[in-house]
Amino acid sequence: MTDHLFRYIDEETMNQSDLNAPTWQLSERARKLTSSAIREILKVTERPEVISFAGGLPSPATFPAEEMRAASDRILRDSPAAALQYSATEGYLPLREWVAQRYSVNGAQIRASQVLITTGSQQALDLLGKVLVCPESPVLVETPTYLGALQSFSMYEPRYVQVPTDDNGLIPEALTPELTKGARLLYAQPNFQNPTGRRLPIERRRALAEFAKSAPFPVIEDDPYGALDYRGEPLPTMLSMSPDHIVHLGSFSKVLAPGLRIGYIIAPEELHFKLVQAKQATDLHTPSFTQRIVHEVVKDGFLDTHVPKIRALYRDQCEAMLGSLERYMPEGVTWNRPEGGMFIWVSLPKHIDTMKLLEAAVAQNVAFVPGGPFFANEAQHNTLRLSFVTVPPAKIDEGVARLAELIRARV
Amino acid sequence: MTDHLFRYIDEETMNQSDLNAPTWQLSERARKLTSSAIREILKVTERPEVISFAGGLPSPATFPAEEMRAASDRILRDSPAAALQYSATEGYLPLREWVAQRYSVNGAQIRASQVLITTGSQQALDLLGKVLVCPESPVLVETPTYLGALQSFSMYEPRYVQVPTDDNGLIPEALTPELTKGARLLYAQPNFQNPTGRRLPIERRRALAEFAKSAPFPVIEDDPYGALDYRGEPLPTMLSMSPDHIVHLGSFSKVLAPGLRIGYIIAPEELHFKLVQAKQATDLHTPSFTQRIVHEVVKDGFLDTHVPKIRALYRDQCEAMLGSLERYMPEGVTWNRPEGGMFIWVSLPKHIDTMKLLEAAVAQNVAFVPGGPFFANEAQHNTLRLSFVTVPPAKIDEGVARLAELIRARV
């Protein structure tokens, strides 16, 4: 999702100065919102000549536009009043049931009464912040973690605590009583994490799911990329291991289309009810029409044939990028080999600041996202995130070659 | 909107008790969210035999379903990738331009750079709370005021200050330095206010627009019902009088359909930019697809012929209800004669508590919303709100007759 965060803010308004402009006092949380240097630099990446690996935009080639067109037509023909009227805050019941059914695997029983449909996964993060986080309350996050989650939670002014990670992701043993004291939630992306592309191994999932059973705070399993598993061999979710103690976030953005903004939270009923109340105060409900479109498209097994096509496309693009990295990157540069998802995480020699590198790269018409902003506290400034899903293979090779040259000059 | 607030919460989950249920610490704001007694009572109003005046649901007869169907089809045929991809947080530019154009009347120049598309007007309230309100900061509201606004702002834990009103709405002279000290915002609905149906006269609009120019906080003009002016003689907005100092909220819910969840905030650029950042952290953006549908339907003047039909329908229903009130209500009961909108506000003799009356009414298969919850602080418990837009005239007469009988027994 992150490229959205960078590409679209209309920064021009920042530079206006108007003597008549009112001076109103803002909330503490709003005062902390500052314009981002990265955004400024990445604004130029919309120019067609720029090869941008910054994007987290799913390939439009994967959007099932014709299926959605047929679904829209049927819905507005057969049930316009219901599709266009105010509707339940919890979401469209048949879609909630479909989600519950889909997650009732490996012996877990998920109930529709645990499912809340959200205006994209981003809203799930906002609602969790709203319902769980007070100013200065500790929030546990991975090192690094999803930038959009930091943005959402930060509106509720937490104190972030970084949980140590390694190449396999979050280290469950690191969750000591000292580290987790007073925490309101633990936020984790076990599948092909944004930004690192890492996948949490089965043993760690078990350990974390077990930890969740006695933790005095919820473990949030954010899983937008789980279906994008290149070998089609997904690891079980933590939700399936501790269905009453894990809060699971899902999304149709990566398997259908992000523009419809349909995600969901699966949570124990007591928390679910608070989240529903918070959502009611936030936007009443997610549009009935778009929820019905999603349900209409997925209800008869469409994803079973559609998702493998997305996987194959992204796997090929990932392979292309890994090949280019092998070919061009100088010694001292390391990266991971993702088993799914949309991102590769690259580490450069310690002395190279990727924020400065980005400026040079953009001048050469190639872009990426510096790693720094993905760290809640102490950042590793020699890291960067590459997305391989938006740019075609030939361009990937050209872009990586340019980037490698810039790095070589700095090693 | 309020009937939504009552009808749809899935209360069943509240009654579940589960020994294995996790006990997680919630935020202060979430702990304050409690289940509402009214909601419990109004749950039964979904039974078909109940004549419900509780609803704020626009009549589905007014939804332009065929126009939307044609628009959806064109959009998914001609620009599926753009309609289904992540898009700008500010909203779809042509729709923002349309809104700016529509408000550039009476000499006011509104710029698209002031317009933020929101996921319904409810989200506008949430974002304003997020960006402006700190715990314990004073928020000025009308007496009574829109319940949904209280719900949104309350998540940011303000201290409400009630501004005195009379039958013409908010009294500008009451905005003394003592009353407004330290306020973060003033929230008002000048047109056919929810719940009272009152319209603010032109002189008061001028006074309030003038007040806004020097106030150290924004005056919020929430205007979901402005187009529903039965004589088609709208009063100028305060935005048109002080375009740089009024924050104006609008919505397509009452003139097209609420289920699409498309509203907007027009604000000075500096506040606009903060609102955009807050929206980004909240749900990234409102769906591109539904924004394009609205734009496609309205862009060629559709509302100019469509809105008069809605007005005529609601005016007739309003007349029907006023006639029934005249016919049946005992002495000591008073109400207003709305010039637009969806609601009539009824005052009973002081000793009648409308919350208790509601219980008796529901037993007789008629429903309304008690007035109490619309007051931020000291409530007038002898008031109630009637909506005349959902129930057909014959049923209106029957329902009002039943209600009058219950009141007569208590006068």
UniProtKB/TrEMBL annotation, chains A, B:
<dbReference type="InterPro" id="IPR050859">
    <property type="entry name" value="Class-I_PLP-dep_aminotransf"/>
</dbReference>
<dbReference type="InterPro" id="IPR015422">
    <property type="entry name" value="PyrdxlP-dep_Trfase_small"/>
</dbReference>
<keyword id="KW-0663">Pyridoxal phosphate</keyword>
<comment type="similarity">
    <text>Belongs to the class-I pyridoxal-phosphate-dependent aminotransferase family.</text>
</comment>
<keyword id="KW-0808">Transferase</keyword>
<dbReference type="GO" id="GO:0008483">
    <property type="term" value="F:transaminase activity"/>
</dbReference>
<dbReference type="InterPro" id="IPR004839">
    <property type="entry name" value="Aminotransferase_I/II_large"/>
</dbReference>
<protein>
    <submittedName>
        <fullName>Aminotransferase</fullName>
    </submittedName>
</protein>
<dbReference type="GO" id="GO:1901605">
    <property type="term" value="P:alpha-amino acid metabolic process"/>
</dbReference>
<comment type="subunit">
    <text>Homodimer.</text>
</comment>
<feature type="domain" description="Aminotransferase class I/classII large">
    <location>
        <begin position="66"/>
        <end position="403"/>
    </location>
</feature>
<dbReference type="InterPro" id="IPR015424">
    <property type="entry name" value="PyrdxlP-dep_Trfase"/>
</dbReference>
<dbReference type="InterPro" id="IPR015421">
    <property type="entry name" value="PyrdxlP-dep_Trfase_major"/>
</dbReference>
<keyword id="KW-0032">Aminotransferase</keyword>
<dbReference type="Pfam" id="PF00155">
    <property type="entry name" value="Aminotran_1_2"/>
</dbReference>
<dbReference type="GO" id="GO:0030170">
    <property type="term" value="F:pyridoxal phosphate binding"/>
</dbReference>
